[in-house]
Structure formats: structure tokens, C-alpha cells
Design brief:
The chain is α+β, with helices and mostly antiparallel strands. It is about 65% helix and about 10% strand.
Amino acid sequence: MRWPTLSLGSVSKVRLSAKPSAIMCWLLLWTLYSILGGFLFKLPPGVAIAFGLLAFAFHWFSTLIHQLGHVWVGRRVGYAATGIQFWWIFSSTLYPADEPALPTAIHLQRALGGPALNLLLTIVAGALCLALLPVGGFVWRFAAILAVQNLLAFIVGFLPLGFTDGSTLLRLRNMRLAQKR
């Protein structure tokens, strides 16, 4: 049996959807963050569950911000996305099926839009984390989680895993090299 893709509404006129695998991973992430809050930060169970939910919300927000970076750059260069789809712990920007072949420069700009926003969010959250270090506490923990999540999204995004921005950049580089020959 094939499970249907779930509609999550829209943001900035872009449809959001999730495959069932994303829902399973979201519940798993919430659980893992709750366990992290309980064991690592010694939070009481109820607070750890709330901590886990908020930490998961930061993950989801970071993923959404990444994809919105692709969306915004796509609009700016005239080749807009039609949707964002979440799957497992990842997500993809969806473009029109009938989109024409695009120049390498357009692909490059769109591919860099997501990581650029993750880098910006990493810097902001990292600066907040450093500023709050003497104070510590709950807010510092969340700033640290937000910084780490965005840093990981930024780094993983550049790994050529076949479905990442790094793979797109590698394909573009190889296309450009082939054209020069």
C-alpha cells in the first residue's frame, strides 16, 4: 500500500507537503530531543518533552528556511519553485515539471540560496549562543541547538549525497567542464 503525501498548507505562496516518512522522523526527532533534554540537561520529564518539541520545531524551522532560500532565489532569477516537500529528515524544493533547461548560472544561484540562509542563521544563533554563554540556561541551550542544526544543515547540504545542493553544484561543475572540452 502506498501512503499519500500530506498537504501542510502553504508559505509564501509555495505548497508545503510531507511524505509519511517525514512524520515518522519528526516524531522520532521529538523523542530524541526529549531524551537529550532529560539525560544531558537533567530536565524533569515534562520539561524535557517540551524541550524536545521546541528543539524539533527549530529543526523544522531550519529546514523550512533552507528551502525558502531556494524559493526566494528562484523567484529573483525568474524560475520560481512550486512547492517544498519534506521526506525522512530532509526536504526538497519542487520546481515545475515543464521547466525549461536552465543556464548553469541560474542553477548555481538557486542551489546556493538554501545554504546561504542556513549560514546566516548559524551565524546569528552562534552569536546569540556566545552572548548567552555566561548566563547559560534554557535560552542558551536553544541558541546552541539552533546554531548546531543550521551548521549541520549547511555542511550536509554541501556533501554530494545525490540529493543535496552539493550534488547539484558538482553536476553543474561537471557540465561546465564537459562544455569546455
